[in-house]
Amino acid sequence: KYLQANDLTQECRDIISSLPKEEGWVSNHLHLYHGCWITPRYMPGVLAFQKHFQARDTDIILATTPKAGTTWLKAILFSLLNRVSYPDLQKHPLLTSNPHVLVPFLEIDLYIENQVPDLTSFVSPRLFSTHLSYNSLPTSAKVSNCKIVYLCRNPKDTFVSLWHFTNKLRLKGTNSLEEAFDKFCRGVSLYGPYWDHVLSFWKESIENPQKVLFLKYEKMKEQPTYELRKVAEFLGCPFTPGEEAKGVVNDILRLCSFDNLSTLEVNKSGKLSSGEANEAFFRRGEVGDYTNYLTPEMAEKLDRITEEKFRETQLKF
Ligand code: A3P
């Protein structure tokens, strides 16, 4: 159900034309808006989201860098928060709906050109997602008591995963790995610079640990049960002794596992309303796949940049 916001298009056009622009490897062009590289297709949604979103204290926002494992964590958060409503895993919505349908992106799926969605009818706790950096979030998301779960991934695998994803979305040909790598290193990538994105949420998670939970893909892979319990506690819905005894933690992880989700018919053949094939969100789902694509020199270069950018922090990948 949509309400109209007629003032958007011209404002948006004016803003886009005033922004620094780079040829994209993710889309034809990327524009630098408030320190974040955005594709023009998403700009109306970003502006409308920033202008109109009213957070509730009970909202939960999943924030991620693209290719950090968003699809996975959407599935996990949806299952976690709705575990009482869907006790029968044979009839779970994830078996027939892609996680991106169950947990929509605010600036991509909900706030779209010329339209402001009526989110008041959503039942609390509302679960949304975004790729925007912390600094670019609407004020109400920052000042309210809504909770933010942030997920990132080591930059080498993030880059390789994004490179594959963009190749899948292109109609013809493959992006040059070297050119894309050069742009990524200069910060020019979807919602990049990657390091600024990670740092924005990292800082907030240190200053305000009740508000932002900072997660890493690699840790989720290494210690999934530990991380899932941590998420449940952070969101104020820890697993009860009864649930622990019944094995609910492992049930959720099994349901949301790469092997399970990627082999479901809906994810093998379905499409999102934005046009992307569901299967594009499932590739290998492993840590360290960058070694199959980056030369040792490229890997070292990214490591050097990361070390430099994260020098003042305890962040390590
Ligand atoms: P790879 O390209 O390295 O395989 P996003 O969801 O943010 O777009 O990230 C996509 C990445 O997460 C892809 O990584 C994809 O394979 C991986 N992924 C998708 N579903 C997953 C799951 N259930 N468990 C682990 N990784 C998953």
UniProtKB/TrEMBL annotation:
GO biological process, one term: sulfation
Record keyword Transport present: no
InterPro entries tied to this protein: P-loop_NTPase (IPR027417), Sulfotransferase_dom (IPR000863)
GO cellular component: cytoplasm
EC number: 2.8.2.-
Pfam families: Sulfotransfer_1 (PF00685)
Single GO MF descriptor: sulfotransferase activity
Transmembrane segments: none
Enzyme class: transferase
Domain of life of the native organism: Eukaryota
Membership in a protein family: Belongs to the sulfotransferase 1 family.
Protein name per UniProt: Sulfotransferase
Source organism: Juglans regia (English walnut)
Gene behind the chain: LOC109014411
